[in-house]
Amino acid sequence: MNIDTFRNYCLSKKAVTEHLPFGPDNLVFKVMGKIFSIVSLDEIPLRANLKCDPDRAIELREEYDGSILPGYHMNKQHWNTLVLDNRLNPELVFGLINHSYELVVNSLSKKLKKEFEDL
């Protein structure tokens, strides 16, 4: 999967913004100000960090050994790094983006959830 496909999918989700807070090589996607994905633009192949349920994270790492890794520079219990070298099915990647996004949305404070719902 290339950066344009990944980026466009993330930006198609409600209330998502993109930022470069860690410099020009790390594209960050946030929902309501909370990070749900970080993409390393300087990596070949492209790598993306996504939040993940801890039990599911372990299962994914075992099933997709070498393509889904513990989250690089992240809490390895709650984050995975996806190696986007076309070995992972795009539908799986989109599903994992959705999962990360939903985890963050579900963890929003009452105030932020209300703002989110009102958008």
TrEMBL record:
Keywords: DNA-binding
Matches recorded under InterPro entries: YjbR, YjbR-like_sf, YjbR/MT2646/Rv2570-like
Keyword Signal on entry: no
Database matches in Pfam families: YjbR (PF04237)
A GO MF label: DNA binding
Domain of life from the UniProt record: Bacteria
Region forming the signal peptide: none
UniProt-recorded name of the protein: MmcQ/YjbR family DNA-binding protein
Organism: Christiangramia crocea
